[in-house]
Amino acid sequence: MSKPEHFEILKERAVFRPAGQVSIGQAAELVATAIGFTRSINIQRLLVDITNLTGFEPPDLALRYLIIHEWARSAGRSVRVALVARLEMIDQQKFGSIVAANIGFVADAFTTEEDALTWLWRVG
Q1: What pTM did the predictor assign?
Q2: Residue 124 has pLDDT above 80, yes or no
Q3: Three-state DSSP class for 84?
Q4: What DSSP character marks residue 58?
Q5: Would you identify the CATH topology of the domain 7-122?
Q6: Is the Cβ–Cβ distance between 25 and 59 less than 8 Å?
Q7: Which residues lie closer than 8 Å to 88 by C-beta, 6 or more apart?
Q8: Is 36 helix (H, G, I), strand (E, B) or coil?
Q9: 75 DSSP assignment
Q10: DSSP labels for 87-117?
Q11: Element (DSSP H or E) covering residue 32
């Protein structure tokens, strides 16, 4: 598996900052690929910043559910994911985080990188 574009390996974590106009399906796949790559190189923490991805609306609950399950499969219970997104992309009830927790996937969404990094280090 080759390193995805916009992927950076730092000490004890990886960062993925994709950019461009994509569909929601393409965005979900980009993140799944980055999570899988992170797992393949034995890094346990991944910060994903999707604030520079455009071209899609916030996903509905059903699609959030499917995306979280896809990302959880890519993580294989070994990658913790902090997602940075624009406020309108984050469900205010934190549905995605609840789904993730229910299936053993350690992930949460934030509007700032600072909050995401704080959480990422706190969870393990």
Answers
A1: 0.95
A2: no
A3: strand
A4: P
A5: Transcription Regulator spoIIAA (3.30.750)
A6: no
A7: 58
A8: helix
A9: H
A10: GGGS-TT-HHHHHHHHTT--EEEESSHHHHH
A11: helix 24-40
DSSP 4-28: PTTEEEETTEEEE---EE--HHHHH
Cα 41 from Cα 114, distance rounded (Å)? 24
Determine the distance from the C-alpha atom of residue 51 to the mean position of all C-alpha atoms in its chain, rounded to a whole number: 12
SS3 67: helix
16-73 pLDDT, tens digit per residue, is 999 999 999 999 999 999 999 999 999 999 999 999 999 999 999 999 999 999 999 9
DSSP-derived secondary structure letter, 123 = T
- Identify the three-state secondary structure at position 39: helix
Residues 21 and 52: their CA atoms lie apart, in Å, by: 9
Q: Beta strand pairing status for 13-16 and 45-49?
A: parallel
Greatest pairwise CA separation for the chain in angstroms: 36
Give me the residue spans of the domains in the chain.
Answer: 7-122
